[in-house]
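Entry for the shared binder. Reason: the reviewer on the internal report wants the predicted structure included alongside the sequence.
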Amino acid sequence: MTQDKVNLHIDNIDDSFEFEGSFDFETEDELDFLDDGFTSGIPDSVEILIINANIATFDSAFGYSSRYPKNYGSLQDAAIAINHGKIVWIGSNFSALDFIEGIANRNSHTQVYDAQWKWLTPGLIDCHTNLVYAGSRSEDFEARQEGMSYQQIASQGGGVLSTVMDTREVSEQELYKQSEIRLKAMMAEGVTTVEIKSGYGLNLETEEKILRVARQLANDYGVCVFKTYLVADTLSPEFVDDIDGYVEQVCQWMESLCNKGLIDAVETPDNNFSLQQIRKIFDKAQSLNLPIKIQAEQYENKGASRLASEYRGLSCSYLDYISESDIVRMETSDTVAVLLPSVSYSLGSEIIPPIDKFRKHSVPIAISTNCNPITSPMTSVLMAMNMACTVFRLTPAEALAGVTYNSAKALHLLTKGSIAVGMDADLVVWGIDRPADLSYLMGQNPISRVMVNGKWTLKK
């Protein structure tokens, strides 16, 4: 076995100390690579070089295809170069040798990290959450487990309106404090992008407060936050007898929120409005150049997913009762199916979305925690991946794609969700043997390190 040795300064990717020493690289004939995906050479200007990495790229250049649910686009014994927050090169350890020799021969500022053959994935993306809210619904949960119906709980002051009132009454600082805990829990499991909806305000003042908190969390923690105006998670108590009037009102609020730069998309559930009312909301969003999403077909097929496909919506979520013909329309409109296994788990539902038909028609499947105080008070993306496999029978590769590649697609974030040249350097380093371990392990967090936009943000 032939080895090349180079003396250089290398950081262990896990540890805070640095070491000097001789670093071994296998010769080219001992490497097994998919060469076609590699770029020709490392650019001269590189801030970070990670070597000895196994990588789940989710990039077609390395064989990833959403049509094959066992495929990760994997590379082994690979290296990756990062500059100005972007991935600028992916190749073999052997290909990185000349560049590393150059580091030793010149006063380079490139930081070299030894991944020690840990696995790198794209930063995880939680694409469907109500992370910003006040209060708790544990009393409702306890009452439900003791046999009370939702109607009984609501009549005693519980239900979704209790969350609305808590969120309306709390100060913006306290709302931030409560929501910050949930974001930090997500980040600790490798989430680098999170979608946050409003919806628990049901008036302009509180909807704006929720979205300002979401924006401030992004500013303070450096993660990407995609802000969605959720139109009426339930009906506003001020408009319960005038739904048409409420639709008129939310369209005015939408424009105000858009003008303040607080929203990236508009979403509505299908259980509070008629299709005609939903169309009016979508038309208003379209006039403001805002993409649309919908929560559809959870309890019955109302045709809401079909309407979203007509507007080329980014995503449809839930979808327990969607028809095959509407799935075909989703494929045609390139709309992502966002599935929420924690809700089925929490509610003990025996009905699950038609996974095989989504596969049959090549509709991308995204997975989310659906973090909310009502049906999914969960912040663990890793647990959502396990539930996607055990409750919905996805493969581990589908589950991981569901919180990376397809979640990025569900939010139309074109530079996130895969490890490829030109993409944002959002990376997670995992101490696992295989990517499937992320879906297999329960209650364990094998994270080693997290990078967002080319900067290390978490080290375990």
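Summary line for the report: The longest strand covers residues 3-12.
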